[in-house]
Amino acid sequence: MTSIGRASVLIGSGTIVSRLTGFLRTVVLVSAIGATTAAGNAFSIANSLPNAIYAIISTGLLTAVVVPQIVAAARHADGGTAFISKLFTLGTVVLVVVTAAAVAVAPWLVQLYAPGFSPHQQAVATAFAYWCLPQILFYGLYALVGESLNARNIFGPYTWTPIVNNLISIAGFGAFILLFGRSESITGWTPGMIALIGGTATGGIAVQALLLFVFWRRTRLSLRPDFRWRGVGLNQIGRLAGWTFLMVVLGQIAGIVQSRVISAAAENDPGVFVSQNAWLLYMLPYSIIVLSIGTPYFTRLSEHAAAGRHDEVRADVGRSIRTLGVFIVIAAFALAAASVPASRIFTDSPAEASAAAVVLVLFLVSLIPNALQFTIQRTFYAYNDTRTPFLFTIVQVAVVIGTAYLAKATLPIGWLAAGIALGQSIAAIVQLVVATWLLHRRIGRLDVAGWMLATGRFVVAAIPAGAVGWGVFWLLGGVDGWTASGKILGAVGAAVIGTVALAVYLGMLALMRAPELSPALQLVRRLIRR
């Protein structure tokens, strides 16, 4: 448990710094091209193409396949050197081919994802896409190296290197403002302006990926090109990756449907960029809490599963969910209470912040289910089972697509992003129920009642905490107050509201004598000391 705590602290502290610098990066970008403008949405679509593929690589193919396989390969006589060399060679070849193919079809990708754009907006988005799509290669290398380091219990570099990317982006976007000022209009964009924004975004990702190779020596493995891809179990990877590839297809279909629906949003209404920024806020607690705590647990789950220690797997699942729950529940309620000031960080007016806050709150409905789903899904991966996650992903995607079309048919244009967010949350809840039932069938009796009791205890404590935080927001003036008057003040206001909500939550847990409180506070103290 001590090693899990140290790894969680290392990942969590790096994630905090990474997310904060990422927030600053987005603030500078919004200052350069606007939040609800045609230009902002054009860049957002172009930059989301490689981001979507990276999300699939990092949470799908690599996490599902590579980590358990590298853990198993570590028992080879060479410590896994031959296996990893072949894997890296194959992965790099695939990434180069996919990147080249994506760049070649960039205009069609933009049309596929954003049919609601005007012809000129599509042209600008395509120009951005030519600069952004090479990120696929560097995102893939970053994920491949980072997940390999995680599998060897080297957790820090994967978390800390994105900070360099954020700093490069802040400098590049800041230079754009100095050279060209604020460019909201979709007209007047020159090749130099597009190159500076798009090149900065891709350059930061490239440096982030290449910097990660500096830490490879800690694995004590020699990495060399090896095109002899037979003989070390790559066929097994192929079988496993087949199901995750189908998950990729499903996820892409759902993402395309959502993007096509949101692209119809009018200028000055919440659109693609606002939705992505709301998701960025959503990912702050998810990254800090779920990834920092869940990632070390996943490595240990893989070790127990590979050794056939099923009782230890079930125990780790329960511990992981309880530890995640005590943090993620208050994060959801506190961020909901501070949704308007938090959204103001990435918008240009209190009115825009209020509209964006609705999108954020509807996304937050899925934060607790997705935190639990993280552990459930990765338990299947620990058993090299990627077929079952594909099955419950079918259910999730069906709900996402259905709710997206329902939003398109029933909601005004200004509410499309909110409708998509709510549909995403409903899908997450349904997926969790199905996935938990299937895991129970896979490994036997799970302590679901214990999870629900603990989560219910956290929710009971978080409800008054969130209510008090919301009351503080209105005592400070509400939408017309200082917490929504500017980007910096929005960040300060969100911090004040979140701190008050957290204090009430801790007090409630103490009154309830929650057994999870003491270990949670120990983990926080480690993080602060770090």
UniProtKB/TrEMBL annotation:
<keyword id="KW-0573">Peptidoglycan synthesis</keyword>
<keyword id="KW-1003">Cell membrane</keyword>
<feature type="transmembrane region" description="Helical">
    <location>
        <begin position="451"/>
        <end position="476"/>
    </location>
</feature>
<feature type="transmembrane region" description="Helical">
    <location>
        <begin position="23"/>
        <end position="46"/>
    </location>
</feature>
<feature type="transmembrane region" description="Helical">
    <location>
        <begin position="237"/>
        <end position="259"/>
    </location>
</feature>
<feature type="transmembrane region" description="Helical">
    <location>
        <begin position="163"/>
        <end position="181"/>
    </location>
</feature>
<feature type="transmembrane region" description="Helical">
    <location>
        <begin position="388"/>
        <end position="407"/>
    </location>
</feature>
<protein>
    <recommendedName>
        <fullName>Murein biosynthesis integral membrane protein MurJ</fullName>
    </recommendedName>
</protein>
<feature type="transmembrane region" description="Helical">
    <location>
        <begin position="193"/>
        <end position="216"/>
    </location>
</feature>
<keyword id="KW-0472">Membrane</keyword>
<keyword id="KW-1133">Transmembrane helix</keyword>
<keyword id="KW-0133">Cell shape</keyword>
<feature type="transmembrane region" description="Helical">
    <location>
        <begin position="52"/>
        <end position="75"/>
    </location>
</feature>
<feature type="transmembrane region" description="Helical">
    <location>
        <begin position="413"/>
        <end position="439"/>
    </location>
</feature>
<feature type="transmembrane region" description="Helical">
    <location>
        <begin position="122"/>
        <end position="142"/>
    </location>
</feature>
<dbReference type="InterPro" id="IPR051050">
    <property type="entry name" value="Lipid_II_flippase_MurJ/MviN"/>
</dbReference>
<feature type="transmembrane region" description="Helical">
    <location>
        <begin position="87"/>
        <end position="110"/>
    </location>
</feature>
<feature type="transmembrane region" description="Helical">
    <location>
        <begin position="354"/>
        <end position="376"/>
    </location>
</feature>
<dbReference type="InterPro" id="IPR004268">
    <property type="entry name" value="MurJ"/>
</dbReference>
<feature type="transmembrane region" description="Helical">
    <location>
        <begin position="279"/>
        <end position="299"/>
    </location>
</feature>
<keyword id="KW-0812">Transmembrane</keyword>
<feature type="transmembrane region" description="Helical">
    <location>
        <begin position="488"/>
        <end position="511"/>
    </location>
</feature>
<dbReference type="Pfam" id="PF03023">
    <property type="entry name" value="MurJ"/>
</dbReference>
<feature type="transmembrane region" description="Helical">
    <location>
        <begin position="320"/>
        <end position="342"/>
    </location>
</feature>
